[in-house]
Fold these 4 entries.
Entry 1:
Amino acid sequence: MKIWDNKKQEQNEINVPLPTKREEKPKRKEKGAKERKDRKEGFLYTCLSWLVRPAKQLRLNRQILVVAYFFAFLFVALMGYITYYVAIPGKEDATSSYNPRKNIFSERMIKGEIKTADDKTIAKSVKSGKDDYSRSYPAERMFAHVVGYDLYGKSGLEASANYYLYRSHSNVFGRIINDLRDEKNQGDTVYSTLDYDLQQTAYNALGGYKGAVVVMEPQTGKILAMVSKPDFNPNAISENYEMLNKDEDSALLNRATQGLYPPGSTFKIVTALEYIRENPKWKKFSYTCEGTTTIDHVRIKCAGNTAHGRVDLYGAMAHSCNNAFVTLASGLDFASFRKTAEQLQLNQKLPINLEYSKSRFVLDGKSPASEMPQTSIGQGDTLMTPLLNCMIVSSIANDGVMMTPYLTDYVESSDGKLVKKFTPSIYKEVMTENEAEELTKLLVKVVKEGSASALSGLRHSYAGKTGSAEHQEGRNTHAWFVGFSPVKNPKIAVCVIAEDAGSGSSVAVPIAKKIFTTYYEKNK
């Protein structure tokens, strides 16, 4: 009986239904699915969820989450732009003459000095009141355009180096003491690439002519001298600005970088390059010059109607034979010619931190044939700045490589510590080394036998091209010269233009000769 009762009890225990429990397993499964979903949303979703708390707690819907994503993106984009602006355009804006922050800089800093490469001061700040300073220019007119001025906006180095001139890297404790005393700190000193003696020679050699001179190192791009006339005295800019701004001669204009001139026969360098590129057998070119010729109904004459007789390309370049060049140019491909011109930076921006004008070349594949004769000899609508002309001849001297021209060599603190050193940089290869070598041979011929023979027979070797550019009927031609020296391993390139001065051989070459002479006397 007892045994039976136990079995019955066990049977009852087995048959008794268990209490119903909550089904937790499906919920755990649901939670796991949600975690996997969170992981799929990615890191940004997790961060946002942590910042704004779980969407379930705050009862956020999907639209609010999208808005949160959007504003997070805007924040990241804003931080990125600010970082970029400080690193890149900020320095450029500091040099702008339109930047009102320059007044803030001047309230707490004494603008630094600008010096030449040979350590001569060409711009400095002098005390003009209790807490006021004004700019002084010891060389006065000689560096007027390239150094510029610091009133009514900025120009020249005063603008391009402004970022460094209004920074101080002198002894930190001295700066702290000055700040505590509410005294201004001395800005850093900018050493330019300009050579005082070359600048003085170029300025004096140009004399009373309007025009410009640019002197460069072909292998580095350093600008050694830059002269523009008519000029002005930057020390008196506050008294004379309005008058200078209305001056018909445009004395404030830096003709070296902003002056646009027909390049005349110096452009035959570009025409010769295009002819060499299109004609592998260019050395067989031959032409008999009779003084005048007519191409596509355009009558062309050589200077003084001179008949040069039979010439090849070397002779045509040496004697600057217009008739030979318009003849060889008549068969050129217009579109290809434009491509070559633009490769040499016509119609293009220039890699320099100064105000400049774009040089102009209008010929293209749709131009009428009648435009080629004048274009090929640097007349017509072709216009060029002296700076670009110097850059092109420097590229020939540098085996076809155009260097980035620059004016700031290095920056020092007021107590003599090096802050920043600027180094040469390649801008682009504008021609092959072989093309540069062939053009050099043509330019050497100009010196040895042609229009630049005033440089022949000197101690050092020279290569160059003259030009006499017509610009207005009844007036003298502009006198041009571009060239470099020595022929092997060139150290200096020169461009000269003298407005309304006559022929390049009689005016521009003697000016260049004086500059070359000064350079070699200083670098014996």
Entry 2:
Amino acid sequence: MKKKNLLYIVCALAMISLCGCDDFLDKDPQDKQTNDTYWQNETSLRTYAQDFYSSYFKGYGTDYTVFAGYFSGDDYTDDFINLNNANTNGAGYIYFPTSSTTDWNSRTETWSNNYGIIYKANVMIEKIPDMNISDEAKRHWEGIARYFRAMAYSELAKYYGGVPYYDKVTDPSDEDLYKDRDSYLLIAQKILEDFQYALDNVRTDDTKLQVNKYVVGAYMSRELLYHATWLKYHGTSVGPGSQQVSNDDIKNLLQGAINGAETVMNSGKYSIGNTYNALFTTDDLADNPEIIWYREYTSGLTMNALMSYNGPENQTQGGVTQDVINAYLCSDGLPIGQSPLYKGKDDPSIKNSFQNRDPRLYQTITDTLRIMSAIGTKYAKGGTSPTGYPTKKFLNEEWFAADSPYCQNRQSPADAPCIRYAEVLLNYVEARYEIAQVGGSAFVQKDLDESINKLRGRQLTKFQETESKTMPTVSLNGNGLSVNGTVIDDPARDKSVNPILWEIRRERRIELIMEGRRGEDLRRWAKFEYLNSEDANGNPSMSFLGAYVDMKDYPGMSSKDDAGNRVLYLFDPNNPGNEDSEKGYIHYLREKGLRVFKAGDLNSERYYLRAIPTSQLTIYENKGKVLTQNPGW
């Protein structure tokens, strides 16, 4: 068993020790950490920097509801239909937010917490030059401060677009404290500057669970890919006032993402192994070559509840959608609409449609129907899902089979992979494709071989089976990709997306499912139309449907209660008007207009950015200043 992680305990004790024995009334304000006697050595800097960590490396969380972006904790997605619309911090949604004073938009935590980090980072940067430490140490610790400042501005930009930018300590009486927002492009460029400085100066190893050069590079690839593509597909804002960003500016940001990724890729420290589920269900990730940064959990000290939600408990918060099940390729590397191996064409039940698929599917989703809402369903072990697709991506099946207490309540000691090598490879290949479209060097086969094809080389098995499977590699073929000489031609492809980019995005979707990336991806690609609850004909979309069920295949199960009232609704695409169908896709949420997005309409486009919190607008107004609200809010 791994050693106990005392990071936060040590940090708390160290912060207490700053108080010393002086008279309380004579001390400088400790919440601002400006006491000049404090900045003495690297120990001081390390202790001060620990306050940054908990803001950005939450892992699986420690409670039952959020999971810090994993599982049901992602934002709006077409992978997971989230039934919890309480709008708690980090939770997913059914509906889009509706006004500037309700839902997420009235919350101030994202704004205030990140500006708190920025202030602390600026204090640290200001104090370092006068400290009696080596120049190398000064550069390293300034790099740490600038890394966290970049992370804070990145989160603000993801939520709000342009925000007021401060790179120095600002006195409360300074009029600049109430300046209006800087542009999204300027914020993105400043994020790039901070990340690049950190990449050039942060140490390659600074002890366990401390940010190093490769952690910087990994997050640099994630964050700058986000901002580069958001600005490419949206411009500087949303709505008619948004301005197009130049190719040169987009290229510079994409190159930053590539720089970060290549630093990790060229280090020789990381590789893709022959595991997938184990990356999310192991109690010690310290020596796993796929893991760049993780949150450590320890039995009896700090544990999480995610495994119980992927094991014995019913997944009442929501379920995986048919839309993402359809996105998994067949084992020949072709989409289900093209592959001769797909068995679910006429009867897309789990029994048929799960045959001959990407092996990651079997390590992510239970391959038997486990439905929450039908009558007469009894399962010896394991929870159910409202869509019939319980997830097991975060379940250690050996522990579960042995009735381990780790699979109960808040008792899981499984470490959480905050960022892993596979994502870096996917960030790299997407950035390489995108930069080739804005004046960068051409996208070539080597880009695929160093990224997607490394993921395809995993040898994965089903649980308790011995036969391992790999996915065929992809080859560049003109304006598309091919596998084993067959050009991939997905009939489900969004025709506005290039075939190469479509497959890059598919690989990303499957590899990173329920890891908190899909909501951000749809946001930066300007693809919220994928989230609509109905199609153009008014029928439920696949992103609001679950598993296909034919009731005659389940003689002990009923879609109606004893009084004849329907409790399980099934949508049959071949007979869409039949409200009493006994076969079709599970249609759990049947209210019309749950999610409606119209591209080009400001009332819809505004959802790509949050409203500036009304409390902040009021603070500015009381000072006689103006903080500009986002369009549409």
Entry 3:
Amino acid sequence: MIDLERERARMVEAHLQRRGITDPAVVAAFRRVPREEFVPRDLVEFAYEDTPLPISAGQTISQPYIVAVTVDALGLRGGERVLEVGTGSGYAAAVLGHLAKDVYTIERIENLADSARARLSRLGYANVHVIHGDGTLGWPEHAPYDAIAVAAGGPKAPPALLSQLTLGGRLVMPIGPDESSQVLVRITREGDTEYREEPLADVQFVPLIGEQGWKDTPGRIVVPSRTERRAGLGALVRETAEPIDDVETASLDGLLDRIADSRVVLIGEATHGTSEFYRMRARITKELISRRGFRFVAVEADWPDAARIDDYVLGGKRRSRLEFTPLARFPTWMWRNVEVHAFVEWLRAHNAEHADQKAGFHGLDLYSLFTSIAAVLSYLDEVDPAAARVARHRYGALTPWQKDPAAYGEAVLVGRYESSEPAVVAMLRDMLERRLEYARQDGERFFDAAQNARLVADAERYYRSVYYGSAASWNLRDAHMFETLKALFAFYGPGAKGVVWEHNSHVGDASATEMSARGEQNVGQMCRAAFGEDAYLIGFGTDHGTVAAASNWDEPMQRMQVRPARPGSYERAFHDAGLPAWGLHLREPRRRAVRDELLPPLLERAIGVVYRPETELASHYFKASLPRQFDEYLWFDETRAVEPLEQAPRAEPDQLPDTYPFGV
């Protein structure tokens, strides 16, 4: 069961205080308001994520950080009279109720006004008054106001609202030419007709409908220019996209020419369980290895597990003596599937024919804390038994947490257990200090062991960071994956080129998405910073079909139906283009027309190993600017789930190599 009070405290610390909301009164107000009371019952688990959530009548409750920026900009000190336009669920009004003497809030949708009034009354907000009406005209009966907050975007500040400000009063609202381009501004009244305007942040709100705002359109709440833009976008996609007739036979010459001499190609996926994504990613990678000399594939999998596959595709002796079934932890279908198996077999055959230009297979992730500990110990037992005894002592404090490393992080956080950080870092340092001695015996085996030791150090930090909020743990994980990628480039030598396989959320530049507003970075962003145009980022998308996923973490895989994309998303616009499969280049200047049309942020869908169609908007959509996120985008309108590899291919045991990668 979710501890909502702890989640609220985490939200305030991670998403407000760490991002500059430090006014003690504002922070205290957010700590006191139970956001779970203002969201639909089936979305309570997402109440303290920093994201907008749907409420009724096609409206949303704004993300906590944007509410906080608005409230903070009003500069309330207590005793003020405040007007709010756009009550919604009443959450922002409740926050304001803790800061001001009286709050008057207007909602144009009657059933929202009624439910917000009842909710605020039930929660004891006697100083918050709700009315149903046209918010663009304000509430003259209670004017003037010391502050006005508007929770919808308009073409300009309504004159009626400006006239209801006291001298020195502040109005904060989103303003822009349409709903795709808004700036949150603060307007201060400095005289009878004098106002000072300050921009605060780029935002996206629902449109401000009313006499002095946007005009209502029956059946929908959109600005006409946005609709026209979507129609034009579909036409541009049809004109400029490169059709994909078949994954196995489609020409990739144009894509390879655009990739040119890039040093790293990052290939994403919009889900962790779609066959078309896996097969096209494998097809591109085969071309990069066979035609462009790429030396390795680095995937979103654990290092020791991928090392078993690396042994297999290289066809040599086993470097690790550790015995375990690789890629067996949840979610097994993510890598133990028919599509990956086919690529692994191709890579083994390719390496057998090209002994002087073999390509490796490696894992970037850090979840294999205890498998990596075992790998380090196994290595040291052979090359340095004395160091192995020291390692067992240093790693020993982590042993009780082998079944639940996350519980270790919580125990350290609350002071019930001492951190093992000094011990695991010391072990890594000792191994690196003796790298020359160890590498002389077997450089490849030392590299593998050193990466496992580095993984142990980073994983220990990761499991402690989980309890500090999603941004901290996300950044540590992606930083580890990027550092592992850099270590691979160093290992393969000057001029080496590599391919990365990860989810879109890891390979697409995070600075072009709402992840950046949460303080999150990712591998794609780090690669662009490190390699510039020598990093080539490829994303994927789909509208509907089936996907391999689970309803909750650590539950069985299901073949789920992917819902058709939501209006207001890139996926819906691409579906409306009417082409079954295509690729779209987004980097070159000659693509300026389609790039400019795609540039304003829209919703984008991301399905991981868990898929919850019933809460899809909250749990699987985020805002992004696609041309800034990727250099290339590949679309499959209808897709199907990957086929899990239930067991090794049917064959007699003595016909399978000892290093068969997936085990039995």
Entry 4:
Amino acid sequence: MAIVVNMPRLSDTMEEGTVAKWLKQVGDVISEGDILAEIETDKATMEFESFNEGTLLHIGIQEGDAAPVDALLAIIGEKGEDISALLSGGAPAAQEASEASAAEAAEAAVSAAEVTAPVVVATATATALPEGVIVVNMPRLSDTMEEGTVATWLKKVGDVIEEGDILAEIETDKATMEFESFNAGTLLHIGIGEGEAAPVDSLLAIIGPKGADISAALNPVAAPVAAKTVATAPVAVNDAAAAPVATPTPKAPVADATAVNASVQTGRIFASPLAKKLAKEKGISLSEVKGTGEQGRIVKIDIERFTPAAAQSIATTSATASAQAPVMAAGEEHYTEVKNSQMRKVIAKRLGESKFSAPHYYLTVEVAMDNAMASRAQINSLPDTKVSFNDMVLKASAMALKKHPQVNTTWQGDTTRFNSHVHMGVAVSVPDGLVVPVVRFADQQSLSQIGAAVKDLAGKARDKKLTPAEMEGSTFTVSNLGMFGIQEFTSIINQPNSAILSVGAIVQKPVVKEGAIVVGNTMKITLACDHRTVDGATAAAFLQTLQAFLENPVTMLA
């Protein structure tokens, strides 16, 4: 689906931008993090990165031309995709609405807002601030983010801040991201300490002239005049009203960052987008480069000057010391509390909403897997071909959904949406919890294509490189715990899906075939359904079709 990229707001005073140079052309393949263009603001010329993948289908502002913030800058989508509706309507919601309901169009508007990164978020507080004092609020770094956790502060109170300096690393529900400043001045106040979480738009920091009075910003209710404050964040947010800034408790200054690259403290390597691009082109490992930028950040000149002979190894240390288990006397009670990550909080909220809003019921069948095992062995004997049993389950499920469209639905209150496309969600375990990347149009893909897609998405999930677009739009989900030896289990529906399939392990056991007891291989699968959209008889028929595909894999190749 094509995505509109708008002219970003790159400074708090920016009203329009000029495209100084395009670094990509129409038809080029775009990867997440690629630099699309250099944009001139009222303060500086800055690189503009893509937060989406696809093909550059349209350039809306030519080199040297200026346009207001939020003007159509470019369109990214699938090669050959029809974007006429976007060009005529000027917003992705227009195209969405032509194919879906008004609810889907509203959802698309949120996605469209997300891709206009980076921007500046402006909020208003009832505060009269001295000239030059700027309130920086907790940014919204993903479409589902409701609060963020400060993982690491890279500046401390009293430090001089330049535009582009990295202030902190902020953990969202999806990833830990660098947070840059688009303002210059002195860091006068830190509102959220390391390891602490706060809602989006909470007071994160205050930047301004050294010695400036910030009491009005710390006690906004006491000031009678409304003043505009600015939260700078390298992402866009939706147009929802910003939450009022809460009065924070002053925090102690954080420790100085080291002069070498910040990976020494955090295990991550900080580098400018241009430096990353040059390093990739030159085949240089960023871990071998010593940065000369702010807090050891690697910049363009570091890559240009780098030679293997001059590379210096940098000893890395752990960001946190491992906690030693206390020695306890017999019978002594003890516990340890660990702060929940943003991902874990979102998982808890989404699954709680699903379990208590959708009336779940469960159906289980036992599938004979002898033919599937023989077919998989034969398929994998082909050169450069490897499929898993999970790939076979995904393919069979996708084909069964086409035969039973009632299961491929979404409950919308007054209406039920029947999805003609089949987008399979695949539950993937990651250290912080669970994510569900999506294999799109799974019914139209071969077993080997599905296998390659799942392998790629699972790798991105474990590396925390999945984009929001790769985790959206599923119509049905498969969760497989068979590799852990789990024979049977039930799952909570991944809304807005109407059903989720739980896949157990293949077990060798005595079975009855043609009146005789023989050794067979079976696998239990359990379908959890939303009774609002899928009745029991419909779900049973779906399982029968799915069972037939798995027990006779040749039918999936017809």
